[in-house]
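request received
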Amino acid sequence: MRLTHRLWMICVLAVGLAVLALIFARPVLLAGAVMISVWILTRQYLFVRELSKVVDSLSVSQTPSLTNLRTEDSSIVTFRATLEEPSPLQLHLEAGIPPAASITQLLELAIGPGTTEQTQTASAEWAVAGTHQFREPQLTASDGLFEETVSMGTTPAVTVEPRSPRNMHVGVGGTRVPLVQGEHETGRTGSGLEPAELREYVPGDTAEKIDWKATARLATPHVRTYETETDRPTVLVLDQRSHLAMGPAGETKLDYLREAAMSIAASTRQLGDPLGQLTIGDEGITSRIRPTSGSGTYTTIRRQLLELEPTLSPTNAQTGQTQYGPQAATPKESSDTQRDVHRQHSHSRTNPTNALEKLGTDNSRFTDQLKPFYENQTVYSTRIRNDPFSSAVESILNDRWGNALTVLCTDDSNPTELKTIVRLLRANGNTVLVLLAPTILFESGALVDAESAYDTYLSFETLRRNIDQLDGVSAFEIGPGDRLTSVLTAGGADK
Amino acid sequence: MTTVGIPETPRLESTLLTAETKREYLPELLAYLLLILAFGMTGGVVGGLAGLVTALVWYKVGNPFAFAVGHLLLIVIFPHGIALSTFVLVELAFLAVLIGPLVRARFRVLPILNSILCTLLLLGLSWFIIHRYSLWLATVLCTGIISLCLYTIHRHGLITLGLVSVESDDKRVETTETATQSTHE
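response:
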């Protein structure tokens, strides 16, 4: 309980009278001090009684219009106070808005004598994800002499979820399929820890392979073989070019592909396989991590995936817009990377144009056999030089890991380029997993014309199937499940 | 310290006792009439005038200042000391002034009884101690008793409003006891 400055003045007056009584030795003044003190005591008692009654009869509520929302969403918060009967106290109420919410105006209520109800609303924007509990509203009551602050009222909680892909669909033709893989078997025997079989000794087996206990038990020499343990390197190839920014904030093509890539990375870590990463922007490679199985690599890749943002297209960059996203390569880094790619390319692969020149016009059978192969390669080579994405992908072909799984995360905006890249990756003997984000599921207003949307989806599905039919290639669609259902439902209704 | 939403009126009084109409001031007017009569009866014309001044002070700035001015004027009226009967008569009039506004309170019975009891007790105790011991002791004792009463009501308010829990205080006592025991060990 606090005293107002007016009451402090009265206290000083009472003390002053008591002091004067002592100074002038006049007991009458002490009587005056006693009278004032009793006056204060009575007011204090009345204030406590009245405030107790108010607290019992006052109901305070702070009600957000939405309790489950996403970051940057707004909700209306209604702050209401109701008294059963008017009180002569001056009541001031302040809402307990969580610090994570920014409100347009302070939520405060003033209930004066004669008033029984007050309501105020304000719009609150929620910028921080998490569960945010309202604090108890603060009631400050005063009678002009005393003041007291009491916490009372409802404390609702608001759950704010970050803007990220929801209802993620990974599948084929609208059917969901599991994305992460289990353990991969080699189907070969050799050195390892898992016993494969016990077989009779045959000439050629070395003496150390003989299982002497089995030989003693079975009377003839026996050899124990083990399942060969291998690692399958996994390389995540992520397209982060500008067109991957399509979609609502937090639910872009890149956001969905990132989620899938992170789940694959987690699965790879669980299996203990080496993991690498290649991210490609509009200007070329923005980051590259060669496959290793150290825990630091997984952490680095995970962090880079989380920080991945679409780069700006070169045309936008030329108009003065800066390239955004932590992984966007600086011109120096980009040129260094491209130089590195070029050096690797020139050292390890035969240039098809040079090879053709060397073959010349010789009409030998050898030349006739090789010429079509190098001519085909020249077409690829020309196309690759003109396309930073293709040349970036080609750079990883020089790294030969054997039985590697390449996970290509991109969209369907350039089908020809996509097919070329998949063929390139497959040509190196890699198993390829293609995760495609259909543009139709991310375009704003694309679902207005349901029939057209369905036709576009069918075109995408044809592309996906064409890629999926390639040997050693699996292609999956990835995107918001609710929008895909809408497209498929519309297609089903039309038929 | 600012007061929430309370208009600064010249007459000092709790909003719980503020009269909405002039008619509601009747108990106080009667009490001050009684005070003027008491002053007049004991102090003559000068006394009557002093009573009138006291009433005017109440009208302008409120009861506490009226109490202060009224008691100061008693020294002026009775410069060589005041007789007990005169003192009792005047203080009874002041008591009426003290009770006057309480008639308007929502919870009036207990405050009125408390006011009468406290005033009589404190004044009686003061008179007794002054005559048996000294004014100093009486002043110190009165200050102590009043401070204790103020603190008691303050604590009562905190507990009633749930601003302190009795349990936490008990635990604090237990902790202190445990700490004392461990120190002795």
